[in-house]
Amino acid sequence: MDSLYLSGNTLSDIDLSNNKELLLVYLSDNEFDSESTLIGLENAPNLKTLDISWNYLEEFSIHSTSLQVLYISHNDLKSLNTDGAVQLRNIYMPLNQLETVDFSTNTSLETLLVSGNKLQNIDLENNSNLTHLYIIDNQLTNLDVSNNLKLEDLRVERNSNLNCIKIKNGQYIPFVMKSDYQELNASCL
User: Fold this and answer.
1) Counting beta carbons within 10 angstroms of the beta carbon of residue 160, is it exposed (0 to 12), middle (13 to 18) or buried (19 or more)?
2) Nearest to 151 by CA among 93, 111, 101, 123
3) Distance between CA atoms of 158 and 164, rounded to whole angstroms?
4) Which of 188, 158, 185 has its CA nearest to residue 171?
5) Is the pTM of this model over 0.90?
6) Which domains are delineated in the chain?
7) Which of 16, 51, 181, 182 is least crowded, fewest Cβ atoms below 10 Å from its Cβ?
8) What are the tens digits of pLDDT across the range 89-142?
């Protein structure tokens, strides 16, 4: 079995340890929370996609070296650890409670959707492959995308304390959605 679709149930515990061939795991819209047991993902050496959106998770760690896509939106996340997931390309995690995130080891990251959280800062210096960043409706006070030269789509509106988004001199981002009071500038003070 390489795909597991168990979305829309009342699952709160699952052991996937004996499913070493898994490529896709969909566990969205269940009842996983901080007391739940979700084990065995580390035993799936070829896991590519994991969807655990629409649950009640407050913290989550994933260290799968093969994982490329993580859907973890609409949870109660206050902590996320993706350190070992070095092949992560796409992370979709809007509408959580995250105040801090660290994607410094996720250097393959291309798409990052973190809208609707409580982020005040985010360090994207190591994420030079980033093409899409949706960070709408957070609490950012600064944002530096000057090292994200592949960025094609930046959505940053509704961050009321963010006036200047730092870019590299001459950097062109084809699509930008920002609030009227925000500017892209190479020298943010």
Assistant:
1) middle
2) 111
3) 13
4) 185
5) yes
6) 1-88 (3.80.10.10), 98-189 (3.80.10.10)
7) 181
8) 999 999 999 999 999 999 999 999 999 999 999 999 999 999 999 999 999 999
Q: Which residues pair with 115 in a beta bridge?
A: none
Tell me how far apart the alpha carbons of residues 147 and 51 are, in angstroms, rounded to a whole number: 29
State the Cα–Cα distance between residues 113 and 135, nearest whole angstrom.
6
Both tokens assigned to 34 = 């901080």
What is the distance between the alpha carbons of residues 108 and 19, in angstroms, rounded to a whole number?
26
8 Å CB contact between 152 and 131: yes
CA–CA gap between residue 54 and residue 67 (Å, rounded): 19
DSSP letters for 126-147: T-TT--EEE--SS--S-EE-TT
**CB-CB contact of 189 with 171 (8 Å):** no
For the beta carbon of residue 41, count every other beta carbon within 10 angstroms. Answer: 20
Quote the tokens at residue 178.
């920002």
Q: Which residue has the tokens 């530096």?
A: 144
